[in-house]
Amino acid sequence: MWLVVLLCGVLVLRGAERARMRLEGELLAQHPARTTVEIRSPSGQSLGRYEAIRLWDVVLPHVAGVPDSLYREFAVLVAGRDGRRVVLAAEEVVPQAGLPPLLLLRRVDGRIGDTVRVPVRGAGRVGHVEREEVERALAPAVRLRYRLRTELRRMPPLQFPALIVGTDVKPWRWVSGAAVLEVVRVAAQVQP
Question: Where are the domains of the chain?
Answer without folding.
Answer: 14-185
